[in-house]
Amino acid sequence: MRTDICRQLERTGIRVVDVPIDHDTAIVETHPELKSCELVIVLGGDGTLLGVARQLSPFHVPMFGVNIGHLGFLTESEPSQLEIALERIVAGEYNLETRLMLEAFVYRDLREIARFTALNDVGVGKGSFARMVTLDVHVDDVYVDTYTGDGMIVATPTGSTAYSLSCGGPIVSPHLQVMVLTPVCPHTLFSRPCVIDASSWVRLSVHARHGDVELAVDGQEGMRLLAGDEVLVRKAPFQATLVRLPDREFFGVLRSKLHGDPSSA
To answer: Could you tell me which residues are beta bridge partners of residue 138?
Structure first.
């Protein structure tokens, strides 16, 4: 498929750079020319696109996803539709859609020890053992509540249809500038998801009598946390740019994918 795409684009006079990737590939370091590409076509599933987006979004590179994975919620084309989709892209028949991204800072003893970016979500929760964690949640230094359970997800509108949705969070239109706070299996009857403005800061303070607490970023990156650690989450200073075809709209894709037909839409 990669070879066919390269040939089809090169026939139109477009210069193509072919970059094999996986979740651990530092594509910007190995191929710095990607920073100035007019378009990056990502072959894979949603996970592949998430990994590429975290690396290329700071450079405002538009990304077009081709689903050769499972669900393909973020991708724009199926392999069977790719030839026509490429013709439309070459003809300029597409839109650029920006998506909110997050930055997460990990502080230990008042010192920043790690920093991450996310397109879908930032989650703090228990690790592999069935032990509850307790998190104090603040928004803009205003105390919200203390949550005991499996953890807390801070999701973007893009991530509202991912892990957050499976934990009872709301579906949010991807064009909104908001963040969603979704408790994971809270040990109370009154803990509910909350939608806040994207200009806010979210602070998650970890309380645990064990060392089995983890930070997860887009379900792909992360680190082990300790009691007393704090995770600060805010809107990133850049956004992901996705290539969208004019006849595809969010609710049509949502209806198709969540009804269990990943090959349609």
So the answer is: 143, 203
